Amino acid sequence: MIRVILPAHLRALARADHELQLEVDEPASVRRVLDALEAAYPPLRGTIRDPLTGSRRPFVRFFACGEDLSSRGPDEPLPAPVARGAEPLRIVGAIAGG
Question: What's the whole-model pTM score?
Answer without folding.
Answer: 0.91
